[in-house]
Input
Amino acid sequence: MDASRNPEYLRKTAEAVAEFKEALEAFLLLHVETTEAPFGRGIVPAVTPKADVSKEELRAASDRVARAAGRASAAPGLTQMYIGVSTFSQPVDPIAAWRSIATPKPLLEPGDVLDAAEQILGRLEAMALRAEAELPPTTGVEAMHPTIWGAARKLWLDGHFRLAVQTAAETLTTQVKARTGLSSMDATNVYEKVFAARAPVLRWPGDANDRTVSSMQNGLAKYAPGLNMTVRNTATHEAADEMTAQQALERLAALSLLAHWIDECEGPTSTDCEAAPLLRWLYAVDLWCRR
Output
């Protein structure tokens, strides 16, 4: 996702700029401005150290500003906040060029850097508000099965809808494999096996002769592998095609429904480690009987 559309990143960047501005202000307290020097403005450094300040204090303050400038280095590019200087051919990055205020022929004055930092903060705030307004809707998705939304959330909020669907589908499959001990099988075969008409690993609760129970068991035997093929496989194979928010929402909803149904099924849990060898043996017997 474009960083300029990520509210969290924009606010973190703003925090870095505020830290830079605070560090620079502390640095300036150890200096005096020399803008009224007889040699003329723009010739001597814009600031010079106070007589009673030690070299150690200056170095510590300078290091603090330098570190903060590094953390905030992306801000001018994000906000397109540069300063035009008549004696310099290119616009000046006010954060990167902060140190020039203490060098001969300074590119910038302290006020230039501080004012630029304030403008950057304002622009970042405006960008964060706009990015929040443009975020994809979350109504409906947050109420989905925690496995599905938990896997999809970050990608969804970043606008990576296809990856959100793919990740949610793969996470659900991984949980089913862990629960049933069929970790070596591919996803479609896992779902076909666990909901098989004969000796299913996961069973819809109730009397198997009940019409509703039978319908659910037979339906899951078709729905689960079909969903894996139509949702997970296409989200994985069509990597170049992004989904719309609506397309992804519908697919996540289908996965969420399956996840809730799987929770209701009777059968081994992911903690039934002793059951895994038996399940694998039953699967081998089942394959032999199908010959």
